[in-house]
Amino acid sequence: MTKRPPAVELACWLLWLQMVAGALVCLMVVVRRDDLGAVWSPMQVGDSTVQPVEFVPVILVLYACTAVLAATCIMLLRSGHDWARYALAAIAVGIFVICVATVRTDPPALVDASAIAGAVLSAVTLVFLLHPQTHRFLRDAAAVRGDTEQTPPGAQGAVERAGAGKGSRDA
Questions:
Q1: How far apart are CA 8 and CA 131, in angstroms?
Q2: Can you list the alpha helix ranges (DSSP code H) found in the chain?
Q3: Considering only CA atoms, which of 100, 138, 150 is closest in space to residue 7?
Q4: What superkingdom does the record give (predicted)?
């Protein structure tokens, strides 16, 4: 395997940093749930039977699933799989959108600062994921593996068999 270029290494480190930052944000949400509940839950009016929204379990499960997916894709990116780069880019875009949406809800100052930092970190990560060095590394890794064509493994044989079957019916 060829040596990974600095853009790939930096993208991986930024992704790990995003995962650590996400864990810290989850911890902050658990600790400051009352302050956030006042902002993110529906308003209580008199004797309303509407219960406040319990968002902590949702955030924790969402973080756990995203972190496991990102960790898996980081390993695949380091191994030279191009599709993992696109999956990680989609995760980075999703985090960016969530951070911008969080800022728009007028949260407490600490959450606001964390969301802005998360948006910047996601944008920088996206730049390195889509960097030409990253593309070149993944293209070279695909050439070493021998999958220079974009045809999935086994699909070429299926195409040839389909063509052979079609020709035998016409004869």
A1: 8
A2: 6-31, 33-40, 56-78, 82-103, 109-129, 132-145, 155-170
A3: 138
A4: Bacteria
Determine the Cα–Cα distance for residues 126 and 90; give it in Å rounded to an integer. 9
Rounded to whole angstroms, the Cα distance separating 134 from 80 reads: 9
For residue 3, count CB atoms less than 10 angstroms from its CB and return exposed for 0-12, middle for 13-18, buried for 19 or more. Answer: exposed
Stated pTM of the model: 0.76
Q: What's the pLDDT tens digit per position in 41-89?
A: 666 556 666 676 788 898 899 999 999 999 999 999 999 899 999 999 9
Residue 92 in domain: yes
The two three-digit tokens of residue 21, written as one number: 């930052």
Residue 26 belongs to domain spanning: 6-41+53-146
Q: Which amino acid is at 63?
A: Y
User: Does position 3 have pLDDT exceeding 50, yes or no?
Assistant: yes
Residue 46 is assigned to a structural domain of this protein: no
